[in-house]
Amino acid sequence: MSDICRWGILGSAHIAQKNWKAIRNSGNGIVAAVGSRDVKRAKQFIDLCQADCAFPTIPDACGSYEELLARKDIDAVYIPLPTGIRKEWVVKAAQAGKHIVCEKPCGADAGEVREMLDACHRAGVQFMDGVMFMHSDRLPAMRQVLDDGRTVGNIKRIASQFSFLAPEEFLKGNIRVSSELEPLGCLGDLGWYTIRFSLWAMNYKLPHTVTGRILSQHGRSDSQRPVPTEFSAELLFDGGVSASFYNSFLTEHQCWANVSGTKGYLYLQDFVLPFFGNEVEFFTQQTFANMQVCDFNIESHHRRHAVVEYATSHPTSQETKLFRTFANCVLTKKVDPFWGDVALKTQIVMDACLASAIEGKPVTIAR
User: Residue 1: what pLDDT?
Assistant: First the structure.
């Protein structure tokens, strides 16, 4: 068994620069080649990343995606291409026998994701979406607290927000306001995370009903139609549990989440992109009313929980663990279907939220 996973990067998106370093820090992967629409563009990307975080052997530049997929020295590919063209290249990568880390949203709809997963299953290759927080050590620490029966109790409500204030040039030219390239707008770009957090909190049980609302929409000048730039939704689960989320390109940066229960609540302020530092944290709180005749005292029983883990650009960071975990699946030849299953569930909920917003009524999810 080889101890190194040889990666190809399909495209030169900005997020790929971060993941170049994650592969370098993983200890079990190298970037062997980068493919772009022309070889000059691929070489520029390699030169930029190599100058900041060098591999011992300089990766090759490929002048097309097909050229990269045809290489025999590539075990896995990272695909950060726009959602509008992503399915084609995920399927082609699977057919070429390459294992796949796919950026999110994985597809324009659940039908596309099913096609991707079917292609991966036929080829016997691993599929995983690029949700980094799923690989943080903070997540099992939070699960332990949620499951202890004492701190939060029975979950009743989940709420989350992921937003950022896009500059004017973003709204004029970014691919995330193009219906052809990113048809789901802020719902796809940001809602993938808020939906995933709610599903994680509920142990990946699907909601039975969702209600979505497009609060604002916009398209750049060459976009055939506007895409959501502000979106909110309500998810209803069995057992009387509800969840809400808000996504926006028009509201200053926030990525918080809160899980409320019958005994207390858990919250964190940076569930997607951890604040810079060498710890990631979350908090729990229980509140007690101490009423003594004329004294009405509300007691706060607050606790900080910290996990030793660097926020970014480090062997312990969540993006590094994503690529290390994925490479381990490749190197041990143990395909884990969980990652494809949870990506499909996320897309199913997202589709239902968008359908509800368009139809103006709640949508029931078949389970």
Answer: 52
Q: What is the pLDDT of residues 201-241, one digit of tens each?
A: 999 999 999 999 999 999 999 999 999 999 999 999 999 99
The string of pLDDT tens digits covering residues 72-113 is 999 999 999 999 999 999 999 999 999 999 999 999 999 999
Work out the angle between the directed axes of helices 110-123 and 338-359 (0-180°, nearest 10): 160
Rounded CA-CA distance 123/118 in Å is 9
**Short-list 259, 279, 261, 137, CA closest to 194:** 259
> What contacts 24+ positions apart, CB below 8 Å, involve 44-47?
44/12, 45/9, 45/12, 45/16, 45/17
In angstroms, how far is CA 265 from the centroid of its own chain? 24
Read off the pLDDT of each residue in 170-180 and give the average, rounded to a whole number: 96
SS3 percent helix, strand, coil of the chain, rounded to 5, is 35, 30, 30
Closest alpha carbon to 256 in 166, 349, 162: 162
Residue 283's alpha-carbon distances to 197, 198, 203, 243, in angstroms, are 16, 17, 20, 19
Distance, in Å, from the CA atom of 198 to the CA atom of 205, rounded to the nearest integer, reads 9
Sheet holding 265-268, edge to edge: 295-308, 279-292, 265-268, 250-261, 155-165, 241-248, 227-237, 209-218, 363-364
Count of beta carbons in the 10 Å neighbourhood of residue 15: 13
Side-chain-side CA neighbours of 250 within 13 Å: the count stands at 15
Residue given tokens 């000048």 in the structure block: 221
For residue 228, how many other CB atoms are within 10 A of its CB? 29
Given a contact cutoff of 8 angstroms between Cβ atoms, the answer to whether 313 and 101 are in contact is: no
Binned at pLDDT 50, 70 and 90, residue 291 comes out as confident
